[in-house]
Specification:
Length: 372
């Protein structure tokens, strides 16, 4: 691995992180070397915190330190009741229908919050996106392996770190309960459609669910696929255009200009800390897909244990312009900078990029993912 001085001056962009999970260190963000943190909201407890953090740290400065993202993570999807479809609305009946196995422990059921209507979630997220013209939708997605945390024990409560934003697992033992995939997909699809309506990129969580994520996207893409011409068809089009006058070319370009009307799918998608094999990326990158799909990588998820070999193969197989870096860390400050430098160096080595070239490439990729 190269030991050249790291070129922070080119701009380094964390594509996915969670500093509002530890609000006590958010104040350290202005002193960080990283240019911009793409900060995810995941649940009811942190939507407002992400909003406040962006408002307080960005101010009127054009160089945003924080790019806010608003979304509902699949780990908390059971807390959403789909009021857009017929089905149980009351708390107990809702949880009995979306969790598997159906909870029979009254203590566990009592600790679950009153579910939030999906229509309210979408409306509130839309309002927040309007406040921030460049904000993303995230973190959203699907997770087949996640189990809900169990009830708090007296020992859990006694050892709880009060600096952590409530709502996460916080070391509790896991229960046997999972969220049914059908319900996770309903919550995901509603947020994907909102991102399409608002023309925003999304950050997607996927654990053992890459096929299900792709299926959800294909449902929204149906009827909107890009036309992929063969080489012969492209040559014929070029010959035909060559025979046109300049005025006719200008007119044709105007007619082909893409509409800015909203779509039922996001324009750009990041598969965050992508943990799947090489084969699915070919489906995500199919030229007919009307969304541009990026893949981000983190030290914690992608370069530890058995995942490392798979991540290396994927990174080598991706196009240069679809790779992003992230920390996926819940603590802002020097550790976040260090993790970003480490994953950037690893990717540059795998791609055979000279360090300054690689940092510039990754910066350009992030800007194109966020802004189009």
């Amino acid at each position: 691995m190269s030991h050249d001085a790291f070129p922070w001056d080119l701009g380094v962009y964390d594509a996915h992180c969670h500093p509002t999970d530890t609000m006590a260190v958010v104040a350290s963000i202005p002193a960080m070397k990283t240019t911009t943190l793409t900060v995810m909201a995941t649940r009811g407890e942190d939507q407002e915190l992400v909003q406040q953090t962006a408002q307080s740290l960005n101010g009127s400065n054009e160089a945003q330190r924080v790019l806010p993202c608003f979304g509902w993570h699949p780990w908390f999807s059971h807390q959403i009741v789909d009021d857009t479809q017929p089905g149980p609305q009351q708390k107990e009946a809702h949880y009995a229908s979306v969790l598997t196995p159906s909870p029979e422990d009254p203590e566990f059921m009592n600790l679950l919050p009153t579910p939030k209507p999906l229509s309210s979630l979408i409306s509130e997220t839309r309002d927040r996106l309007r406040m921030f013209p460049n904000a993303l939708v995230g973190e959203i997605g699907l997770d087949k392996s996640f189990r809900l945390p169990g009830v708090w024990t007296p020992q859990d409560l006694e050892s709880r770190d009060d600096q952590l934003t409530p709502g996460s697992r916080e070391g509790r033992r896991l229960s046997p309960y999972k969220v049914k995939m059908e319900h996770q997909r309903a919550v995901l699809s509603a947020q994907l459609r909102l991102a399409g309506e608002m023309g925003r990129a999304v950050s997607v969580h996927s654990v053992q669910a890459h096929g299900a994520v792709l299926d959800s996207l294909k449902e929204l893409w149906a009827g909107h696929e890009r036309v992929v011409m063969s080489r012969r068809e492209r040559e014929r089009q070029q010959d035909a255009e060559g025979a046109l006058s300049d005025d006719e070319k200008v007119k044709g370009a105007k007619e082909r200009k893409p509409s800015k009307a909203s779509s039922p799918f996001p324009p750009r998608i990041c598969m965050h800390s992508y943990s799947g094999p090489v084969e699915p990326i070919r489906q995500f990158l199919n030229k007919s897909n009307p969304s541009d799909v990026y893949f981000s990588f983190s030290v914690a998820i992608n370069f530890s244990g058995a995942q490392a070999k798979k991540a290396c193969d994927v990174i080598k197989a991706l196009p240069d312009d679809r790779i992003l870096v992230e920390s996926d860390l819940h603590v802002a400050g020097p550790q976040m900078d260090q993790l970003l430098e480490e994953v950037t160096r690893q990717i540059c080595d795998l791609r055979g990029w000279e360090l300054r070239h690689g940092v510039q490439q990754l910066a350009d990729n992030w800007k194109r993912f966020v802004f189009g």
